[in-house]
Design goal:
The structure is a homodimer of 447-residue chains.
Chain A (H helix, E strand, L loop, with lengths): L10 H13 L5 E8 L9 E2 L3 H9 L5 H9 L5 H8 L6 E5 L4 E2 L6 E6 H5 L2 H25 L4 E3 L9 H11 L4 E2 L2 H7 L9 H6 L3 H12 L4 E3 L5 H12 L5 E4 L4 H14 L6 E4 L5 H6 L7 E4 L1 H4 L9 E9 L5 E3 L14 E8 L2 E9 L3 H8 L4 E3 L1 E6 L2 E2 L5 H17 L16 E6 L8
Helix pairs in contact in A: 2-6, 3-4, 6-7, 7-8, 10-11, 11-12
Function (chains A, B): Catalyzes the first step in the biosynthesis of NAD from nicotinic acid, the ATP-dependent synthesis of beta-nicotinate D-ribonucleotide from nicotinate and 5-phospho-D-ribose 1-phosphate.
Pathway (chains A, B): Cofactor biosynthesis; NAD(+) biosynthesis; nicotinate D-ribonucleotide from nicotinate: step 1/1
Catalytic activity (chains A, B): 5-phospho-alpha-D-ribose 1-diphosphate + nicotinate + ATP + H2O = nicotinate beta-D-ribonucleotide + ADP + phosphate + diphosphate
Amino acid sequence: MTRSSALLTDRYELTMLTAALRDGTAHRRCVFELFARRLPGGRRFGVVAGIGRFLSLLRDFRFGEDELRFLRDERIVDEPTLAYLANYRFTGNIVGYREGELYFPGSPVLTVDGTFAEAVILETLALSVLNYDSAVATAAARMSIAAGNRPLAEMGSRRTGEQSAVAAARACYIAGFSATSNLEAGRTFGIPTMGTAAHAWTLLHEHEADAFRAQIDALGADTTLLIDTYDIARGVQTAVDVAGASLGGVRIDSGDLPLVAAQVRAQLDSLGATATKITVTSDLDEHAIAALAASPVDSYGVGTSVVTGAGSPTAGMVFKIVAREASNGSWVSVAKKSAAKATTGGRKTAFRTLNDSVATSELIAISPRFESATDAASTYDARALQVNLVSAGEIHPDHEGIRAVAAARAHHVTARAELPLSALALSRSDPALETVYVTLDETSGHQ
Amino acid sequence: MTRSSALLTDRYELTMLTAALRDGTAHRRCVFELFARRLPGGRRFGVVAGIGRFLSLLRDFRFGEDELRFLRDERIVDEPTLAYLANYRFTGNIVGYREGELYFPGSPVLTVDGTFAEAVILETLALSVLNYDSAVATAAARMSIAAGNRPLAEMGSRRTGEQSAVAAARACYIAGFSATSNLEAGRTFGIPTMGTAAHAWTLLHEHEADAFRAQIDALGADTTLLIDTYDIARGVQTAVDVAGASLGGVRIDSGDLPLVAAQVRAQLDSLGATATKITVTSDLDEHAIAALAASPVDSYGVGTSVVTGAGSPTAGMVFKIVAREASNGSWVSVAKKSAAKATTGGRKTAFRTLNDSVATSELIAISPRFESATDAASTYDARALQVNLVSAGEIHPDHEGIRAVAAARAHHVTARAELPLSALALSRSDPALETVYVTLDETSGHQ
């Protein structure tokens, strides 16, 4: 049996549900929107990740006996609420950005359309998944830009929670990394895995040469030897002595990398190991990778910085009610007004406007009816950004599972290719695209 | 059936295992140590968290059919390795710091003693858990110091991975928070949960007063009303109009908090609601909490900053081999030598030296034999920091589960009370205690 995801929820959602069932507002239709107010860290774009994971968790968002017992024993909700939760299943609609898509401030990354009761209790789960996965994917995309055509491997599992590690490997792969060290990510999401040896392997043996010989004996001469346990120059010499000039690769995990990479390359070449590749893995982030662009490095391994979002460990997205049915049955746009956290009410339909295949703006049409927005946008050269993820409670299988990861990775390449060149700079700046709101006359358009 | 934790592992650990089984080094006894080289973010102390979670995951670290099939299908290991993993169970010893204990650079937070094969494959799991949980606990402890006697609630689930959210709630509770919004943390670890309503609750209703009335009807007048959806002064007036002067509390989630809290307190008092409490929850970190010390605030809710480690989202701990059996059966201390990542070899026993109950140093005795270190330390006024967590593969139940969380929270209070006053400052500085290494003659001491 799959473990329920239903308690990955903030208590206030069930408190509101209790009060709403009591005053009759629980069954009002509402539209909730998940979006980012701003891009943290001066990023020029964000990368959506986590959609497929959220959909799988939504499938398991059911209150079974164990969950209900906890809520009853702790007096978190009353009996009518327990009865409601026992039968809970999301029956509404969710549209959202494709996984791998780019987003900007205000982009309606997810739009959840259902009764208040069924939508409000998804807030925490949706945000936890999208905020972490998108933070990592956004950092990963910047590293992928910095690395150019050189492959990047994610190896940061040890520097984030053990389950977040799996999500991070997935987000990195979507945003352009080519492999991960994390085996669970290989099993669950079909991501290629990699890895050869740690310093412990060398230290387990009396001599570095013994460790190298045993590794080659087990894995073949095309393995990658870690050559910096004692002295790098001696390590390179020993590696080639043991493996011969056909050694697959060496890994450098310390030192001043541009300098060391050049020295190692020269030494390998002088020993005839001209095809032996150099991987570097020491505390890399997008800036360190960019600084190695002219160095003879063949591939990068990135740990801490990517799994912690390279300085922005959460995407900071929020989940807000933007429209609801009034007591007379009409739709009302709603928004929080106070202070710096004001939101833009109304249901939103999003398009990326293009000029000669280069993105020019994030166009957001505000209208309670999706159709009228689509009509309006057809007058622009624009790409619709939202797809149906859940229809009347049914999850669209295209957006979930292993195949969805590959599709997201491919879509990210397409979406990134539309960006103007200025969006690829690593320095802190404003979002690369401006978000433009267009409010449509809510009485126009066909029903 | 519990899901196996065995693939929450970096591939290189299994690659090393393959090679070690082949060259006969797999069964050499080794000592691995988990420690931090430094305290990130200029912190003056670290807080150990995650020990109990690691022990539970260690219990589930077994390679079942599904795990073995993946490793075979992907050709990650060879057949002898699959056979070894099929019977894998950790049979060694683990000693470590109590959960809730403080740590400093070099503190041997965990020491894993077993064969190379059985110890090396625990690296990623141990680090993932300890690095995330300790990063959060360390941030939480600083907030708890800043908050003084005012209660702190953790409400950051939405800003970290959905499973990390549960771990974060647990780490915060251990480090001095009094409650969490996360229901799964309530169920799994027995942590008190809290929460009343979001802005969506007010926006669901035609009028703020309707929302307040319905909430009070469902939850009683001692509930906490969120009063900043539209206008704070009007929100306070409406709250007292609806609930009367016995209203339990109001929550403020936006604005310039010191100013707003003072205004709200004055308004509540003028309306006779002198016992109504004020909770603030807007983007708080330890510095914002400290800045509210003189404001009429009764409790704090902290989200993003604590679950992301308040600027240091990982504790940066590493897992290194420090000693191994030589081919002649004697013990050898081992350490990586190169560059900035050199480590201190040898098995370590740790003590906190005290003077009049105030901690004065982190004393680390290096000796292959625990007994000789304990003898040596008995000459100091010192508290032994390590406890037995796993003995010959058996997990000590005291350190796992719900009761272990309460014990860790209590131990943290004790350990923090020993710190010198300078350790409680929030500014960036050096560790509050110096780590002092004492190398014992490895031939002395009784066997």
